[in-house]
Design brief:
six-stranded mixed sheet, hydrolase, Rossmann fold, metallopeptidase activity, 5 domains, P-loop_NTPase, protease, 15% strand, seven-stranded mixed sheet, AAA+_ATPase, alpha/beta
Length: 666
Amino acid sequence: MVAAHVIDDLSDRILAGYPLLVTRTYEERRWEQEFRRLAADFGWSCVSWSMTGGVVADSESSGSEAGAERVDPVAFLAQIQNDYPGQHLFLLKDFHLCFDDPYVIRKLRDLVPVLPGQQKTLILLGTVDTIPKEISKDVSIIDLPLPDEDDLHEILEAVLDDPKSGIATSIQQADRETLVRSVLGLTADEARKAWVKSLRGADGLTDELFASLISEKRKVVQGASLLEFVALDEGIDDVGGLDGLKEWIANRSEAFSTDAKNRHIGNPKGVLLAGVQGCGKSLTARAIARMLKFPLIRMDLGDLLESGRGVSEQNLRDVLSTAETIAPAVLWIEEIDKAFAGFVGNESQDPTVSRIVGRFLTWLQEHTHPVFVVATANRIESLPPELLRRGRFDDLFFVDLPTYEERLAIFRIHLQKRGWNPEQFDLDSHSNATEGYSGAEIETLVNSAIIDSYAEKRILSDEDLQDSIERTVPLSITMEDEIFQLREWARTRCRPATLDHRVIRVMEEEARRGETPAAEAEEVLKWKQLAEYGQIPAAIIEFLRHHERVTWDVLLNEFADYTEVSGRYGLVFRSDPKVVIWTRIGRELVDQLIDLIVRKRLYLHPCGEDLYQQASTPKLPAVAKFPDQRVQNAVWLPTELQLAPYIGGAGIYGRVARIKMGAPSS
């Protein structure tokens, strides 16, 4: 189901008499189905045309019969004006390829003033890049969106139900949401093929399976010189320590869920990781993407800001547009301090660069797409103060040299990755001996010890590790002053990425003390709590879970204490607006209900009029089922709300609209 606001916009333009719509999309088949459905909702006919296939009409169209002119674009444009009756949509596929023909342009200009009076609209469907100047003022350009989460859930259900897909794995609802998020940014066909490829023959859902799905998005960034698609080889378990940061990321990941979206919880913006070199900031960026199950794209901000590469604001717009297209995604800006070096506080700075920096900072604060930005920095004095302002990032973390426990974990990780059993080594001694060493330095010395033992045809020993430790001079010695200054700066500005273990113990005690109240709170009706906090859509869903099936009068009566349920608006079926669902509802509540129904969170079911015997129903004649033909006068179709779809006509019952009613009689 395409987003309601897109369908509404297209409907408004067509019914307002827009003669020529240019719709940009790679998904010709998907959108042709939507336009044909839209025409049926209007009671119009729909005709499609292509250079190779000629005309394909629905059963109610009555244009010319087969002939050579069906393929010729100029002749077909003439037929549109003369041979087809009013109330027609015409889908012209890849018609922009005909723009080189001056006769085509002239004929389009001739049609523009004629079509509105005939209730006809031309829809150019394809990957249109440029519009001829001659018709640029006569067209409306609409970028048709890729499938959203609701669309992809519907497609995934079809894939899982199709026996030809060969998918035998049982998939829980939470995993289905993750599968959907993994392919956002792909077309419907691309998503379908990616799921079948990854799930066919799979024994279960693993991190590797999700990483395989995410890799399908690689082609979206191909050709973007300032963006790089990064493989998700490392997971959060490959990061030793940083428990405070890990916990924070785990909490933020919940905000990307469908439930959080339904509760209008905003997407997390991102995190800035400042700290000592070699302490895992870049590794953490990769692990965050794996943890969120998002693709990771690295942005070369330094190259973008270098005037020698022909800096332009268009470059930045293209980069950010690509990131938003592939969303949900993690946008990784490595060593952002180097990118801004030389541009901060420089009065002779190129004004174009100043605008780019300003535009980028504005995007950081205002973007609404699920693009989680992870920026890393070593030298914080190079960062502009406005970058550190709250609102650009959700939080700033300081990544310090690893503690004893973290060094212990880092030794284990790197020995295991290289096939050695950590339990065979005295890691306690090695962790004590490496105080002041970074994670990168520990990795290097482990690798060096393994190479030395291999070269001498020996088994790796504690002595090899100790020798490698003694040969390594850590940054904490060579850059002691810089690290001290960095710590002092971060002390009052950043959260520590490593939790103090005393704090952990306090948190555990608080959690234990909170077990009983939490259990008692579950007994309270959840929908009432949500409604009291203004989370009306989520409360409606919970109310339905509690009652299974609800009539309109019951719903409005129960929610009267929490929101404005009465008003001058009604709900009708989009297929026939004279078939009324309910009346006298408040505007905000109507819009919330439409959103829930269109996004398939709630479902309408026809029901008997007897369920409303004690209710004040719409003062209209009642019908037992949806009319086969459009009605002349308004009627009321009794319905109830459920969380399960209606098998007998989900398409009609899932397409609803708002109407404004007259003032109530005194």
